[in-house]
Amino acid sequence: MRYETVKTDITVIGGGLSGVSAAVAAAR
């Protein structure tokens, strides 16, 4: 398994409609 460190303001974990909705809401 590979671990990756990413520095972001908001991290969206998960896929599907809820993940996409969270990503779109965060982008606004």
TrEMBL record:
It comes from the Bacteria. InterPro entries: FAD/NAD-bd_sf (IPR036188). This is Putative pyridine nucleotide-disulfide oxidoreductase.
